[in-house]
Amino acid sequence: MSEELSKSFLSYYSNLSNKVFSLLSFERIFGGASRETYKIRLKDSLGSEERLILRLSQESSLIETEQRIEYLAYSAFQKSNVPVPILIDMSEDDSTFNAPFMLMRELNGEAANPFTPNGYSPYEQDIGIQFWSILGEIAKRKLDNDIFNTFAKDLDKPFWKTELDKWVKVIEEDSIGVEPILDAGIRYLYSYPPKEAKNICMVHGDYRSGNFLYLKNEITGILDWEMAHLGDPLEDLGWALSPIWSWQDKDRPAYLIPRDEAIEVWESSSNCKVDKKDLEWWELFAAIKGMAIWISAGNEFKSGKNIDPINLFSAWIPGDIHLEVILNTLESKI
Amino acid sequence: MKPDLNIALLNAAQEIISRFSPLIEDEYERSRLSSWGALVLISAMKLDDAGASLDKENQDIIEWLLSNSRIKENELEILKSADSEDNSISFLDENNQKLRRILSDEVEFLESDGQRAKVRSAYELFRSMHQRRKVSDLVGLLQQKID
Q: Out of A312, A313, A324, whose CB is closest to B134?
């Protein structure tokens, strides 16, 4: 499959650039569950090297989203204080590579495993300040009208209900077992909703450790925008703060800086004030949304639609952790 | 059957992680095989007590329902099958799913009825169910094996 794809890619990219290229490497990156991601190195006839990233929509993917949404989200942050890769091309039809795709330049840097403590050591402080500050930049970014209008067509109020309904529907459709803890968590969220957000912003949808590139003490790119949508800025904050991303050191969300400091940096960067109670709601929501994603992965695996081990891993390990997060929250409320 | 199933799986996981995975040059395929090794390792470690854990959970749910919910012993048809001699995991799991559904519905009723003490007691049951099932505490061990 990879050889056939690499040949098609070489032909496509030579046509697109109007240059003759030879392929140096074409490697799939392990881990992405919603897109197949390939790291590509090419050389032109003058010996100049190009490093590219190709993202293909998977026929059976954990999170089913349109390629166009991801492309537009990246577009919204080109040349901004939010570092993102430079986009080259995208297509929503499958005539080129048998799947919709997006092509961009590769950024320098590496991504850490979100479940490994001390992945950012010894640069936790520097990276931490950038991580929470960039999230604030996303929240306060004024979007281009065309991009805003495209996202706004799916916008419904209140934001919390739109998002909760969406993920509860995924749970109902994909559930392969009864989870009384999850059921109780969902009932709690519907019973005690947050206030409606004053600011509407672009929500990344999966802003967390592991979804950005870093080089020593600098964040070089924010990745994986496929769940981007408009909504409440606290949604991303709640997701990024979720204890799942720092399970072995819960006081340092994302294994970076202490929680209180992280919130202060975010408030200062976003110009938003955190309402503690509303943030608690969004943090519990993050665990419910997480469960929807892990349940969906388990369903893909069980049904045989996609037996990538990452789907079984997701159902077992993050699924366990988020259930525990929900139970911890419920116990603290009773 | 000797050696036992869990020992066979443990050794298989060890071979996948330490022997075969490093031989693969393609980074994606190597990571994918290592993940399989880790998942087989988890399976091996949980296999031995999987049946007993399900049986214990079923007994705990039944006990809790009879003490804290509207369910009466004669209404709980599931009790009959739970007393069966069949100890297969599939049979225990089938009962477990039915019991979990009843439990969830009863907790919902208690919440809406404002019976906080009983809801608190349900959360205690949830906690013991979760502790028995969870595999997330094996993550550290898995990382050591893979590293």
A: A324
Q: Note the ipTM here.
A: 0.92
How crowded is residue A144: how many other Cβ atoms within 10 Å of its Cβ? 13
> What is the pTM (predicted TM-score) of this model?
0.93
Cβ atoms A24, A42 nearer than 8 A: yes
Q: A237: closest CA among A213, A273, A212? A: A273
Distance CA A321, CA A323 (A): 5
pLDDT by residue (tens digit) across A158-197? 999 999 999 999 999 999 999 999 999 999 999 999 999 9
Residue B84 CA: distances (Å) to CA of A149, A248, B50, B80:
61, 41, 17, 7
Give A115's DSSP letter. T
Using CB atoms, pick whichever of B104, B107, B135 lies closest to residue A317.
B135
Q: Where do runs of H (alpha helix) occur along chain A? A: 2-17, 67-76, 124-140, 145-152, 159-174, 180-191, 233-241, 259-270, 276-303, 309-333
Q: Cβ A180–B127 below 8 Å, yes or no?
A: no
Classify residue B105 as exposed, middle or buried by CB count within 10 Å of its CB (0-12, 13-18, 19+): middle
Residues A50 and A20 sit within 8 Å (Cβ to Cβ): no
- Contacting residues of A for B133, CB less than 8 Å apart: 320
Residues ≥6 apart with Cβ < 8 Å to A178: B97, B100, B101, B104
Residues of A in contact with B107 (CB under 8 A): 180, 183-184
Smallest CA-to-CA distance from B5 within B64, B57, B49, B54 is with B49
